[in-house]
UniProtKB/TrEMBL annotation:
InterPro entries: FAD-dep_OxRdtase (IPR006076), FAD/NAD-bd_sf (IPR036188). Residues 484-521 are annotated as: Disordered. The lineage of its organism: Eukaryota, Fungi, Dikarya, Ascomycota, Pezizomycotina. This is FAD dependent oxidoreductase domain-containing protein. It comes from Lithohypha guttulata. Residues 44-444 form the FAD dependent oxidoreductase domain. GO terms for cellular component: cytoplasm. Pfam families: DAO.
């Protein structure tokens, strides 16, 4: 439905969120956890938010010898990983032809960083390396995609070799990937993965707490941030103060890993990172069906709107413990359906409701999109849902994450604050971005601590080394340019995932093909 979005800051995460399947096996150690009974009065580094960004920041700080003497506190408004990461689709898939080669290569590195950590530490999070199968449901959409891939092959053959185009006439390949023959065509991308994201994040956080490297304070929302001008605080370096219902806390560095909720604390990001409510489901597969071979994206189904971008992974099957030969698990983790929403989505920061229009669509659509197989599916009109829930994404106005030194938290100010950092705004594509964005901001903080290199020079080295795309860096010039673009609400109303031509380039000017606000959370 058309959004009636009014430009307003995000609220705090709501108390009574909808029930995500990923939270159905909560981490007992972290549930309600407070490492210290009282909120610390001060810390060297305070991380706000405990999704994949916050957890990645914490683990890279713990792994860096330069931070060994720093006290690190993580503040979470609700339980650990109860924001977008704990509500997403379980995808960790780089978009190879939707963005510039620089960004695509960065996303490939991110997926590798997640996979490497899981393998090194044997994280029990159902990781699976898969091919990303994306189906396009109108000839026009598919023709545009093929042009983008042709351009990628010419400009970056290494990345181009990771993508295969499958025409609708190739019935054998379509069937092998279980996609309905009505699709206009497919792309198959290498380098993707899927996982139980909540278990991945809570493993990292629990490990750091048990090692004594991290103080975690759950159910501690940050209501505002102020800068201290007192001489004593300035001399000690504790220039920032976080305000919470449990008291105040001084910090030398605050890193906001707040994604869709960013503008609650940074009002000048109200129209740059906008909360958007999106929907997910965990569906029981048809009896007797076999696990799908890929992760999936479906673009333009039922109507051809490029805004209509659905996504799917399937969990593994497990033998039932009762020994009767039945199987458990295998949930089809299916999200999207925003074209069928009955409630406003843009500007909404409460994840306590389930949209009946999206929920109905998600239960019905897969039977038309894919060949799910199984017994007794004749005449089946919808799949049974185990869980249906919502989550809040942070849509970036210029389609890129915002990483680096944050502007003042005073509304309208364009000065950059010492000790205030931001890593947010993934536009529904955080899993293959947030890990190394978190590492980049950690490196920035530690470079600032060393006082041996100017911030601008250090950022230049990060960009030249491929450790952060230039288009992700927060600058006053970028903020001004983003304000000149159509608003997130306007882009959304226009089906604007493709955006104007300016969104198809890095700052360096290299063409990226389509620059999709992909729904893969």
């Amino acid at each position: 439905m058309a959004s009636s979005y009014i430009n307003k800051p995000a609220g705090l995460p709501c108390a009574n969120s909808s029930a995500s399947f990923w939270h159905s096996e909560p981490n007992a150690f972290l549930w309600g956890h407070r490492t210290t009974e009282d909120l610390p009065k001060q810390a060297d580094v305070v991380i706000v938010g405990s999704g994949i960004t916050g957890a990645s920041i914490a683990r890279y700080l713990a792994a860096d010898s330069r931070a060994s003497s720093l006290s690190v506190v993580l503040l979470e408004a609700r339980e650990i990983c109860f924001g977008a990461t704990g509500r997403n689709g379980g995808h960790c898939q780089p978009l190879l032809f939707d963005r510039s080669p620089t960004v695509a290569a960065f996303e490939v590195k991110n997926v590798h960083a997640v996979k490497s950590y899981i393998e090194e530490h044997n994280v029990p999070c159902e990781w699976r390396s898969v091919t990303g199968c994306r189906s396009f449901w109108t000839p026009e959409l598919f023709a545009s995609v093929k042009q983008d891939i042709e351009h990628l092959v010419k400009t970056n053959p290494e990345l181009g070799a990771m993508v295969q185009v499958v025409e609708a006439g190739d019935a054998k390949t379509m069937q092998r990937h279980r996609v309905n023959a009505n699709a206009a065509g497919l792309t198959l991308s290498q380098g993707a993965g899927q996982l139980w994201p909540y278990k991945y994040v809570t493993f990292i956080v629990e490990r750091l707490v048990r090692e004594g490297r991290l103080n975690v304070q759950t159910n501690t929302p940050v209501t505002r941030i102020t800068s201290s001008n007192s001489s004593s605080n300035a001399k000690s370096g504790y220039r920032q103060t976080l305000h919470t219902p449990r008291g105040q806390m001084a910090a030398r560095h605050i890193i906001l890993a707040t994604n869709g909720y960013t503008s609650h604390l940074l009002r000048n990001f109200t129209d740059l990172i906008v909360p958007v409510r999106c929907e997910m489901s965990a569906l029981h597969p048809p009896p007797g069906s076999e696990r799908l071979p890929n992760s999936y994206g479906m673009v333009g189904f039922e109507g051809g709107n490029s805004e209509h971008d659905d996504y799917l992974i399937q969990r593994p099957f497990y033998d039932s413990p009762n020994g009767d030969g039945t199987r458990r698990g295998g949930h089809l983790m299916f999200g999207g359906g925003r074209s069928f929403a009955m409630y406003d989505c843009v500007g909404e920061s409460d994840d306590d409701i389930v949209d009946p229009g999206e929920a109905d669509y998600l239960r019905r659509a897969l039977l038309k999109m894919l060949e799910l197989g199984g017994n007794d599916t004749a005449g089946m009109e919808e799949l049974k849902a185990s869980h249906q829930w919502t989550g809040i994404k942070g849509y970036s106005r210029d389609n890129m994450p915002w990483v680096g030194k944050a502007p003042s938290h005073e509304e309208g100010a364009m000065t950059f604050e010492d000790g205030l950092w931001l890593c947010a705004g993934y536009t529904g594509h955080g899993m293959p971005n947030a890990t190394l964005c978190g590492k980049a901001v950690v490196d920035m903080v530690l470079a600032e601590e060393s006082k041996t290199i100017q911030y601008a020079e250090f950022c230049r080295r990060l960009i030249e080394g491929g450790d952060l795309p230039e288009s992700y860096l927060i600058t006053s010039e970028r903020m001004k340019a983003a304000h000149g673009l159509p608003s997130v609400a306007e882009q959304d109303a226009a089906g604007g995932h493709h955006g104007p031509q300016s969104l198809k380039q890095d700052v360096s000017g290299s063409s990226s093909g389509r620059d999709s606000k992909c729904s893969l959370m």
